[in-house]
Amino acid sequence: MSGPDPSLAEGSHRSDIALRLQGITKRYPLVLANDHIDLEVRWGEILALMGENGAGKSTLMKIVYGLVSPDEGSIQVDGQLAKIHSPADAIRLGIGMVHQHFMLVD
Ligand SMILES: Nc1ncnc2c1ncn2[C@@H]1O[C@H](COP(=O)(O)OP(=O)(O)OP(=O)(O)O)[C@@H](O)[C@H]1O
Ligand SMILES: [Mg+2]
Fold first, then answer.
1. Centre of ligand 2 from the C-alpha of residue 76, in Å
2. In a domain, 105, yes or no
3. What pTM did the predictor assign?
4. How many CB atoms lie within 10 A of CB 92?
5. Using CB atoms within 10 A as the burial measure, which of 4, 11, 31, 76 is most buried?
6. Residue 23 placed within a domain
7. Which CATH number covers residue 28?
8. Is 100 inside any structural domain?
9. pLDDT 10s digit of each residue in the chain, 106 long?
10. For the chain, percent helix, then strand, then coil, each to nearest 5?
11. Is 51 near ligand 1, meaning CB less than 6 Å away?
């Protein structure tokens, strides 16, 4: 198992933007959960994502963490296009997640 990408270590960033989401869209059969979401998070920035129940916050975070595949849009980590297909991919890129609900093995 490989660890986090060493090029993402403190002080050696390629871009001022740690995470950039562009046009992230996720449709479920009955609802458009994320509608072309653009979001930038800078290194060291602490951001609160706020919205009513069902607004699409968890869906967006699950996309960043590789648990849900977006229908459209792109993710960049430190200025590089990131292909995040699983939590393992996310962790390699330095992205962690603390879930709202317990996520234990069934
Ligand atoms: N796996 C799924 N299948 C179908 N619909 C889903 C699925 N996951 C989420 N949704 C729907 O997508 C919408 C966004 O849900 P999401 O869980 O992202 O909202 P949220 O902002 O995290 O809400 P909460 O504040 O309640 O945690 C809701 O209408 C929800 O019912
Ligand atoms: Mg949620």
1. 23
2. no
3. 0.91
4. 19
5. 76
6. yes
7. 3.40.50.300
8. no
9. 566 776 666 668 999 999 999 999 999 999 999 999 999 999 999 999 999 999 999 999 999 999 999 999 999 999 999 999 999 999 999 999 998 788 777 7
10. 15, 30, 55
11. yes
